[in-house]
From TrEMBL:
PANTHER family linked to this entry: NADR_TTD14 AAA DOMAIN-CONTAINING PROTEIN, TRIFUNCTIONAL NAD BIOSYNTHESIS/REGULATOR PROTEIN NADR
Coiled coil: none
Gene Ontology terms, MF aspect: catalytic activity
Transmembrane parts of this sequence: none
Species: Trichococcus pasteurii
Name the UniProt record assigns to this protein: NadR/Ttd14 AAA domain-containing protein
InterPro entries hit by this protein: Cyt_trans-like, NAD_biosynth-regulator, NadR/Ttd14_AAA_dom, P-loop_NTPase, Rossmann-like_a/b/a_fold
Pfam families: AAA_28 (PF13521)
Ranges of residues in domain NadR/Ttd14 AAA: 175-333
The organism's place on the tree of life at top rank: Bacteria
Length: 382
Protein backbone atom coordinates (compact mmCIF):
# COMPACT_ATOMS: atom_id res chain seq x y z
CA UNK A 1 0.00 0.00 0.00
CA UNK A 2 1.30 3.44 -0.88
CA UNK A 3 0.37 7.02 -0.08
CA UNK A 4 -1.92 8.69 -2.61
CA UNK A 5 -0.40 11.66 -4.39
CA UNK A 6 2.72 11.66 -2.21
CA UNK A 7 6.34 11.32 -3.22
CA UNK A 8 8.54 8.99 -1.24
CA UNK A 9 10.54 10.75 1.45
CA UNK A 10 13.80 12.38 0.48
CA UNK A 11 16.59 13.60 2.73
CA UNK A 12 19.52 12.12 4.60
CA UNK A 13 17.86 11.62 8.00
CA UNK A 14 14.49 9.91 8.37
CA UNK A 15 12.60 9.31 11.61
CA UNK A 16 10.85 5.95 12.07
CA UNK A 17 7.78 5.45 14.26
CA UNK A 18 5.79 2.25 14.54
CA UNK A 19 2.74 1.17 16.50
CA UNK A 20 -0.60 -0.59 16.49
CA UNK A 21 -2.43 2.75 16.69
CA UNK A 22 -5.57 1.14 18.09
CA UNK A 23 -6.39 3.98 18.29
CA UNK A 24 -3.87 6.68 17.50
CA UNK A 25 -3.84 9.17 20.37
CA UNK A 26 -2.04 12.30 21.56
CA UNK A 27 0.91 10.31 22.94
CA UNK A 28 1.51 8.75 19.51
CA UNK A 29 1.25 12.16 17.88
CA UNK A 30 3.88 13.60 20.20
CA UNK A 31 6.33 10.88 19.12
CA UNK A 32 5.51 11.20 15.41
CA UNK A 33 5.78 14.99 15.33
CA UNK A 34 9.07 14.96 17.23
CA UNK A 35 10.45 12.42 14.73
CA UNK A 36 9.34 14.58 11.83
CA UNK A 37 10.67 17.87 13.19
CA UNK A 38 14.09 16.49 14.14
CA UNK A 39 14.63 14.92 10.71
CA UNK A 40 13.91 15.35 7.01
CA UNK A 41 10.71 13.34 7.34
CA UNK A 42 9.11 10.45 9.18
CA UNK A 43 7.90 6.99 8.14
CA UNK A 44 4.93 5.83 10.24
CA UNK A 45 4.41 2.05 10.25
CA UNK A 46 0.96 0.74 11.18
CA UNK A 47 1.38 -2.77 12.59
CA UNK A 48 -1.28 -5.38 13.18
CA UNK A 49 -2.60 -8.85 12.60
CA UNK A 50 -5.93 -10.66 12.44
CA UNK A 51 -7.82 -10.65 15.72
CA UNK A 52 -5.70 -7.95 17.36
CA UNK A 53 -6.89 -5.41 19.93
CA UNK A 54 -8.39 -3.02 17.37
CA UNK A 55 -10.83 -5.39 15.72
CA UNK A 56 -13.55 -5.37 18.44
CA UNK A 57 -13.87 -1.63 17.77
CA UNK A 58 -14.04 -1.92 13.99
CA UNK A 59 -10.36 -0.98 13.74
CA UNK A 60 -8.60 -3.78 11.91
CA UNK A 61 -5.10 -3.03 10.66
CA UNK A 62 -6.32 -1.92 7.24
CA UNK A 63 -8.82 0.52 8.78
CA UNK A 64 -6.14 1.89 11.09
CA UNK A 65 -3.82 2.37 8.12
CA UNK A 66 -6.58 4.22 6.28
CA UNK A 67 -7.20 6.51 9.25
CA UNK A 68 -3.50 7.22 9.76
CA UNK A 69 -3.09 8.08 6.10
CA UNK A 70 -6.15 10.34 6.36
CA UNK A 71 -4.71 12.02 9.45
CA UNK A 72 -1.49 12.96 7.66
CA UNK A 73 -2.90 13.47 4.17
CA UNK A 74 -1.75 17.10 4.07
CA UNK A 75 1.74 16.49 5.46
CA UNK A 76 4.35 15.64 2.83
CA UNK A 77 6.97 14.97 5.50
CA UNK A 78 5.07 11.98 6.87
CA UNK A 79 4.73 8.75 4.89
CA UNK A 80 2.38 6.09 6.26
CA UNK A 81 2.83 2.39 5.47
CA UNK A 82 1.06 -0.75 6.63
CA UNK A 83 2.64 -3.90 8.02
CA UNK A 84 -0.32 -6.28 7.88
CA UNK A 85 0.28 -9.58 9.65
CA UNK A 86 3.04 -8.04 11.74
CA UNK A 87 2.16 -7.45 15.35
CA UNK A 88 4.64 -5.60 17.53
CA UNK A 89 7.14 -8.10 19.04
CA UNK A 90 6.51 -9.07 22.65
CA UNK A 91 9.58 -11.27 23.07
CA UNK A 92 13.25 -10.47 22.47
CA UNK A 93 13.58 -13.41 20.05
CA UNK A 94 10.90 -11.95 17.76
CA UNK A 95 12.64 -8.66 16.97
CA UNK A 96 15.18 -9.79 14.35
CA UNK A 97 12.66 -11.36 11.95
CA UNK A 98 10.25 -8.47 12.55
CA UNK A 99 12.94 -5.90 11.71
CA UNK A 100 13.77 -7.67 8.45
CA UNK A 101 10.19 -7.19 7.24
CA UNK A 102 9.81 -3.67 8.62
CA UNK A 103 13.09 -2.51 7.08
CA UNK A 104 11.77 -3.55 3.65
CA UNK A 105 8.69 -1.39 4.26
CA UNK A 106 10.91 1.52 5.24
CA UNK A 107 13.20 1.12 2.21
CA UNK A 108 10.17 1.23 -0.07
CA UNK A 109 9.17 4.58 1.48
CA UNK A 110 12.45 6.38 0.78
CA UNK A 111 13.97 7.96 -2.30
CA UNK A 112 17.50 7.38 -1.02
CA UNK A 113 18.39 3.94 0.26
CA UNK A 114 21.40 5.27 2.18
CA UNK A 115 19.35 7.65 4.32
CA UNK A 116 20.08 7.42 8.05
CA UNK A 117 17.22 5.89 10.05
CA UNK A 118 16.42 7.15 13.53
CA UNK A 119 13.86 5.17 15.52
CA UNK A 120 11.49 6.93 17.93
CA UNK A 121 9.35 5.25 20.59
CA UNK A 122 7.69 6.21 23.85
CA UNK A 123 8.16 2.75 25.36
CA UNK A 124 11.32 1.80 27.24
CA UNK A 125 11.10 -1.91 26.39
CA UNK A 126 10.89 -1.18 22.67
CA UNK A 127 13.80 1.27 22.81
CA UNK A 128 15.98 -1.28 24.60
CA UNK A 129 15.08 -4.03 22.11
CA UNK A 130 15.86 -1.79 19.13
CA UNK A 131 19.22 -0.80 20.59
CA UNK A 132 20.13 -4.48 20.91
CA UNK A 133 18.82 -5.69 17.57
CA UNK A 134 19.50 -2.72 15.29
CA UNK A 135 22.54 -0.63 14.45
CA UNK A 136 20.34 2.43 13.91
CA UNK A 137 20.05 5.38 16.28
CA UNK A 138 17.19 5.01 18.79
CA UNK A 139 15.40 7.80 20.70
CA UNK A 140 13.20 7.18 23.72
CA UNK A 141 10.61 9.97 23.78
CA UNK A 142 9.23 11.23 27.09
CA UNK A 143 5.44 11.07 26.76
CA UNK A 144 4.68 11.50 30.48
CA UNK A 145 2.93 14.78 29.69
CA UNK A 146 0.21 12.68 28.05
CA UNK A 147 -0.56 9.78 30.44
CA UNK A 148 -2.89 7.90 28.14
CA UNK A 149 -2.64 4.57 26.34
CA UNK A 150 -4.60 2.70 23.71
CA UNK A 151 -5.76 0.33 26.46
CA UNK A 152 -7.08 3.26 28.52
CA UNK A 153 -9.11 4.43 25.54
CA UNK A 154 -10.42 0.99 24.63
CA UNK A 155 -11.58 0.50 28.22
CA UNK A 156 -13.10 3.98 28.70
CA UNK A 157 -13.21 5.91 25.44
CA UNK A 158 -15.50 8.70 26.66
CA UNK A 159 -13.16 9.58 29.50
CA UNK A 160 -10.22 9.96 27.11
CA UNK A 161 -12.16 11.05 24.04
CA UNK A 162 -10.27 14.31 23.50
CA UNK A 163 -6.97 12.42 23.46
CA UNK A 164 -8.03 10.34 20.42
CA UNK A 165 -6.76 11.47 17.01
CA UNK A 166 -9.63 12.86 14.93
CA UNK A 167 -10.17 10.14 12.30
CA UNK A 168 -10.21 7.46 15.01
CA UNK A 169 -12.90 9.19 17.07
CA UNK A 170 -15.65 7.93 14.78
CA UNK A 171 -14.91 4.37 15.96
CA UNK A 172 -15.57 5.38 19.59
CA UNK A 173 -18.43 7.84 19.06
CA UNK A 174 -21.69 6.63 20.57
CA UNK A 175 -24.22 6.44 17.76
CA UNK A 176 -27.83 7.17 18.68
CA UNK A 177 -30.43 6.50 15.99
CA UNK A 178 -33.95 7.96 16.19
CA UNK A 179 -36.66 6.30 14.11
CA UNK A 180 -40.38 6.83 13.88
CA UNK A 181 -43.47 7.01 11.71
CA UNK A 182 -44.04 10.29 9.83
CA UNK A 183 -44.72 13.56 11.63
CA UNK A 184 -44.75 12.15 15.14
CA UNK A 185 -42.31 14.66 16.61
CA UNK A 186 -39.14 12.71 15.71
CA UNK A 187 -37.23 15.54 14.03
CA UNK A 188 -38.05 18.01 16.79
CA UNK A 189 -36.93 15.46 19.36
CA UNK A 190 -33.59 14.99 17.55
CA UNK A 191 -32.93 18.73 17.44
CA UNK A 192 -33.83 19.19 21.10
CA UNK A 193 -31.59 16.34 22.22
CA UNK A 194 -28.71 17.64 20.08
CA UNK A 195 -29.03 21.05 21.75
CA UNK A 196 -29.14 19.50 25.21
CA UNK A 197 -26.04 17.34 24.68
CA UNK A 198 -24.20 19.78 22.36
CA UNK A 199 -23.60 17.05 19.82
CA UNK A 200 -23.79 16.83 16.03
CA UNK A 201 -26.96 15.45 14.48
CA UNK A 202 -28.18 14.46 11.04
CA UNK A 203 -31.51 15.08 9.36
CA UNK A 204 -33.72 13.01 7.09
CA UNK A 205 -31.89 13.19 3.77
CA UNK A 206 -34.99 12.48 1.68
CA UNK A 207 -36.52 15.76 2.83
CA UNK A 208 -33.63 17.73 1.32
CA UNK A 209 -33.50 15.55 -1.77
CA UNK A 210 -37.18 15.87 -2.55
CA UNK A 211 -37.15 19.62 -2.05
CA UNK A 212 -34.13 20.10 -4.29
CA UNK A 213 -35.46 17.71 -6.95
CA UNK A 214 -39.06 18.99 -6.60
CA UNK A 215 -40.50 15.46 -6.46
CA UNK A 216 -43.12 14.04 -4.13
CA UNK A 217 -43.41 10.56 -2.65
CA UNK A 218 -45.43 9.23 -5.57
CA UNK A 219 -42.78 10.29 -8.09
CA UNK A 220 -39.76 8.65 -6.46
CA UNK A 221 -38.51 5.84 -8.70
CA UNK A 222 -35.82 3.21 -8.24
CA UNK A 223 -32.98 5.56 -9.17
CA UNK A 224 -34.24 8.16 -6.70
CA UNK A 225 -34.28 5.59 -3.92
CA UNK A 226 -30.74 4.48 -4.81
CA UNK A 227 -29.65 8.08 -4.31
CA UNK A 228 -31.62 8.31 -1.07
CA UNK A 229 -29.98 5.15 0.30
CA UNK A 230 -26.49 6.40 -0.53
CA UNK A 231 -27.24 9.97 0.57
CA UNK A 232 -28.66 8.99 3.97
CA UNK A 233 -25.77 6.65 4.70
CA UNK A 234 -23.17 9.26 3.76
CA UNK A 235 -24.93 12.01 5.71
CA UNK A 236 -24.98 9.87 8.85
CA UNK A 237 -21.37 8.86 8.30
CA UNK A 238 -20.28 12.50 8.00
CA UNK A 239 -22.22 13.39 11.15
CA UNK A 240 -20.52 10.62 13.12
CA UNK A 241 -17.13 11.90 11.90
CA UNK A 242 -17.91 15.55 12.77
CA UNK A 243 -14.84 17.08 14.49
CA UNK A 244 -17.20 18.83 16.90
CA UNK A 245 -18.26 15.49 18.38
CA UNK A 246 -17.55 14.98 22.05
CA UNK A 247 -18.35 11.29 21.95
CA UNK A 248 -21.92 11.11 20.66
CA UNK A 249 -23.89 11.75 17.47
CA UNK A 250 -27.66 11.65 17.06
CA UNK A 251 -28.96 10.45 13.70
CA UNK A 252 -32.45 11.27 12.44
CA UNK A 253 -33.39 8.26 10.29
CA UNK A 254 -31.17 5.77 8.50
CA UNK A 255 -31.11 3.43 5.51
CA UNK A 256 -33.56 1.03 7.17
CA UNK A 257 -36.24 3.72 7.00
CA UNK A 258 -35.45 4.51 3.36
CA UNK A 259 -35.82 0.82 2.59
CA UNK A 260 -39.22 0.70 4.31
CA UNK A 261 -40.59 3.59 2.24
CA UNK A 262 -39.20 2.09 -0.97
CA UNK A 263 -40.90 -1.20 -0.16
CA UNK A 264 -44.22 0.52 0.57
CA UNK A 265 -44.03 2.35 -2.74
CA UNK A 266 -43.20 -0.80 -4.71
CA UNK A 267 -46.30 -2.51 -3.28
CA UNK A 268 -48.60 0.32 -4.47
CA UNK A 269 -49.27 0.85 -8.18
CA UNK A 270 -49.78 4.59 -7.60
CA UNK A 271 -46.07 5.01 -6.86
CA UNK A 272 -43.33 5.31 -9.49
CA UNK A 273 -40.98 2.69 -8.04
CA UNK A 274 -41.63 -0.81 -9.40
CA UNK A 275 -41.14 -4.16 -7.66
CA UNK A 276 -38.24 -4.86 -10.03
CA UNK A 277 -36.58 -1.57 -9.09
CA UNK A 278 -37.20 -2.25 -5.41
CA UNK A 279 -35.35 -5.56 -5.65
CA UNK A 280 -32.24 -3.62 -6.71
CA UNK A 281 -32.74 -0.94 -4.05
CA UNK A 282 -33.16 -3.65 -1.42
CA UNK A 283 -29.77 -5.21 -2.24
CA UNK A 284 -28.04 -1.84 -2.02
CA UNK A 285 -29.85 -0.91 1.20
CA UNK A 286 -28.99 -4.23 2.87
CA UNK A 287 -25.30 -3.72 2.09
CA UNK A 288 -25.34 -0.33 3.82
CA UNK A 289 -27.48 -1.55 6.73
CA UNK A 290 -24.91 -4.28 7.44
CA UNK A 291 -22.25 -1.56 7.87
CA UNK A 292 -24.29 0.51 10.33
CA UNK A 293 -23.38 -0.03 13.98
CA UNK A 294 -25.72 1.47 16.59
CA UNK A 295 -25.29 1.91 20.32
CA UNK A 296 -28.87 3.02 20.97
CA UNK A 297 -32.02 3.12 18.84
CA UNK A 298 -34.85 5.36 20.05
CA UNK A 299 -38.12 4.43 18.39
CA UNK A 300 -40.97 6.97 18.38
CA UNK A 301 -44.26 5.07 18.02
CA UNK A 302 -47.17 6.63 16.10
CA UNK A 303 -48.46 9.69 17.93
CA UNK A 304 -52.07 10.50 18.66
CA UNK A 305 -51.64 13.73 16.74
CA UNK A 306 -50.45 13.74 13.13
CA UNK A 307 -48.79 16.98 12.08
CA UNK A 308 -49.03 17.77 8.38
CA UNK A 309 -45.59 19.19 7.64
CA UNK A 310 -46.18 19.31 3.89
CA UNK A 311 -43.53 16.70 3.37
CA UNK A 312 -45.20 13.30 3.47
CA UNK A 313 -48.39 12.47 1.61
CA UNK A 314 -51.50 12.81 3.79
CA UNK A 315 -52.20 9.16 3.07
CA UNK A 316 -49.59 8.49 5.74
CA UNK A 317 -51.80 10.15 8.37
CA UNK A 318 -54.16 7.18 8.58
CA UNK A 319 -53.72 5.35 11.90
CA UNK A 320 -53.52 1.92 10.29
CA UNK A 321 -50.88 3.07 7.83
CA UNK A 322 -48.80 4.69 10.58
CA UNK A 323 -48.93 1.46 12.52
CA UNK A 324 -47.85 -0.49 9.42
CA UNK A 325 -44.82 1.78 8.94
CA UNK A 326 -43.94 1.44 12.63
CA UNK A 327 -44.13 -2.35 12.48
CA UNK A 328 -42.07 -2.51 9.29
CA UNK A 329 -39.36 -0.40 10.92
CA UNK A 330 -39.24 -2.78 13.88
CA UNK A 331 -38.95 -5.70 11.45
CA UNK A 332 -35.95 -4.05 9.79
CA UNK A 333 -34.33 -3.40 13.15
CA UNK A 334 -34.77 -7.05 14.12
CA UNK A 335 -33.46 -8.22 10.75
CA UNK A 336 -30.35 -6.09 11.23
CA UNK A 337 -29.69 -7.70 14.62
CA UNK A 338 -30.20 -4.49 16.61
CA UNK A 339 -33.42 -5.22 18.47
CA UNK A 340 -31.51 -5.29 21.78
CA UNK A 341 -30.48 -1.66 21.19
CA UNK A 342 -34.10 -0.41 21.02
CA UNK A 343 -35.77 1.82 23.58
CA UNK A 344 -39.43 2.38 22.73
CA UNK A 345 -40.38 5.96 23.57
CA UNK A 346 -43.86 5.08 24.77
CA UNK A 347 -44.03 7.13 27.95
CA UNK A 348 -47.40 8.83 28.52
CA UNK A 349 -47.77 12.52 29.26
CA UNK A 350 -49.66 13.77 32.31
CA UNK A 351 -52.42 16.31 31.96
CA UNK A 352 -53.42 18.63 29.13
CA UNK A 353 -49.98 20.29 28.93
CA UNK A 354 -48.50 17.06 27.61
CA UNK A 355 -51.58 15.60 25.96
CA UNK A 356 -49.59 14.01 23.12
CA UNK A 357 -46.69 12.85 25.34
CA UNK A 358 -43.99 14.87 23.59
CA UNK A 359 -42.35 15.92 26.87
CA UNK A 360 -42.73 12.47 28.42
CA UNK A 361 -40.97 10.90 25.44
CA UNK A 362 -38.25 13.57 25.57
CA UNK A 363 -37.54 12.70 29.22
CA UNK A 364 -37.53 9.00 28.39
CA UNK A 365 -35.02 9.62 25.58
CA UNK A 366 -32.82 11.62 27.97
CA UNK A 367 -32.79 8.81 30.49
CA UNK A 368 -31.73 6.29 27.83
CA UNK A 369 -28.93 8.54 26.54
CA UNK A 370 -27.69 9.37 30.04
CA UNK A 371 -27.46 5.66 30.81
CA UNK A 372 -25.58 5.02 27.56
CA UNK A 373 -23.12 7.84 28.18
CA UNK A 374 -22.69 7.15 31.89
CA UNK A 375 -24.02 10.57 32.85
CA UNK A 376 -25.07 11.18 36.42
CA UNK A 377 -28.53 12.64 36.91
CA UNK A 378 -28.45 16.30 37.89
CA UNK A 379 -30.21 17.25 41.10
CA UNK A 380 -32.27 20.36 40.44
CA UNK A 381 -32.36 21.15 44.18
CA UNK A 382 -28.59 21.85 44.32
Amino acid sequence: MGNLYKDKLSGSRIGIVFGAFAPCHIGHLEVILKAKKENDGCVVIVCGEDGDCGEPFGLDVYRRFRYMRELFADDNQIYVVMAAGQGIPQKETEWESWLEIINLKIADSLQHSDAQKIWYTGKTMQAEALEKKSTDEVHLVDTSLYPVSGLNIRNDALRYFNAIALPFRRAFTKKVLVLGAPSGGKTTLVKDLAKLYSCPYSFEYSRQYQEESNVNDFELDGMDYQRLVTGQFQLNRDTIADPASQGMAILDTDVMVTKVYARLGAEDADYAITPEEYAIVEQSANAFIARQLWDLILVVPPTLKYVDDGYRNMEFSEDAFLTTIHEMMLEEIERSGNLDKVVMLDAKGIGEKDEFSYYARYKQAKEAIDELMGHKQYNSDN
